[in-house]
Amino acid sequence: MRLFLVALQFLTRLPVRLSRFDPAWLNDCVRHFPLVGMVVGGVGAAVLVAALQVWPAWVAAVLALIATVALTGGFHEDGLADTFDALGGVVPRDKALAIMKDSRIGSYGALALVLSLLLRAALVAVLATRPLLGAVAALLVSHAFARTAAVGVMVSLPYGGDADHAKAKPLALAVPMRNLWIGLGWCALLVLGLATLGVWWPRLALAAVAALAVALVMRQWLRRRLGGYTGDGLGATEQLTEMAVLLAFTASL
Q: Is 128 helix (H, G, I), strand (E, B) or coil?
């Protein structure tokens, strides 16, 4: 519970208060990132279901997206923009890392951010016109799988930036593989629960394949360009995985 609260405090704007804090907890709390994703996805799903009682599907979808962005403070969106600004062009590693630290947003980052928001809103709007169980499942799974993909990249790569100047220094240290296994365990419980409720198994399997594909592509991209992961790279991984999973849920099969 303590590690889950640390993860919740790190990834969201929820007012979590801890009586004390050990920096080592930040390294181990990543095992519960998928569970935090379920919380964020659950809030988005609740807003979507409530909004559909009053407004059309596309309005409800935008409101659900606003709710999740507000809950996380645009944490992952910021990483997406910074990553594409840094890696969208052909620049050396040192220059790319310097661009990531720059608070200004460039054309690559702006395009990635706008297109990501548009695509996610469109996909959730499509889901909102279908049985609501599928829409709720898609939001829960996309947020949980997306954060699991980020943990997978973190576990499989060294830190690619300057560890001494990392914003969350404990996360720049080696993250044990057991944290990924525990995160996958949370995802397995979610999938089993949704399948029991009647969500189509092949859809869940396709979502898992989509998440794995993004994680592998991002791992290769970050390894080749930066020699490892950065916090912004993990944020980009989360965002791209969200889109991939939502695409899997909306695919006509």
A: helix
